[in-house]
Amino acid sequence: MNNNKIQLSSVPYLEFNRTQWSRLRNSVPLLLNKKEIKKIQGINEELSLQEVKNIYLPLSRLLNFYITYNIRRKIATEQFLGTNIQPVPYIIGIAGSVAVGKSTTARVLKTLLSRWPEHRVVELVTTDGFLHSNKILKKRNIMKKKGFPQSYDTRSLVHFLSKIKSGEKIIKVPIYSHLIYDVIYNKKKTISKPDILILEGLNVLQSNLDYKENAYNIFVSDFLDFSIYVDAQEWLLKRWYIQRFLKLRQSTFLNANSFFHHYTKLSNQQTIKNASKIWKEINSPNLRQNILPTKKRANLILIKSINHKINKIKVRT
Question: What is the pTM assigned to this prediction?
Fold first, then answer.
């Protein structure tokens, strides 16, 4: 088979390998250095300059095309209707499993998109901030379902996105702390009318939400202009989750205020056993039941292999 040909699968996606995709960079310069990339990468990832050049620069170029086209389309609509439509943020959703590297993808894109000649303002919001508090989760007896659809305050998340798309100037969003494993009480992040909003989380493409939380049948995905799903085989995800757990045990978990501080008293073997149990009982069922089924709703899929290296990219046609 000719490797230079783009493969069209049975689903409406064009598939690219790394070499094909990297050519789409079209000589766009990389405006990031190693020090900046070090700050962006996750605790369990080694993000290289080459990965940013070959994968994320072409992706940022594609997104920049979409955003520019979206602006031109609105201008054309204004000219036709004779109105003055206020600009609203272009929303990019990033979904995928626990430990797949969604946060790193979001941070890289935030940095790259803000450095295009247009100098657009880019904000990043994670759906973790819209999780119900631990107090509520305990009251409902669903602490072990954290990350499942029922653990989110979906009504507030949809309300936030509605405000964004309505052009509201100042919006406060809740902040989640991975240290205390809870939403921070009485502390908010201010979002001030960005040009681009990146929304990252497990649930951004989900639609099977509790009726009480979604009485009007409106979903988070209804507000997205473009969506990305970060994908990997489950055995890799489990490995990355355990590796991350071990690294956190030697860093964040050492803080006495950490929700997981008690794991620092366990041996490596005991920690691996506990992390494997959490994956089996919580993360794996959530992945299979609620996250993985949303993959084909994404506009673009990044498929990872060993060491978080992206080896395939699928773009919806």
Answer: 0.90
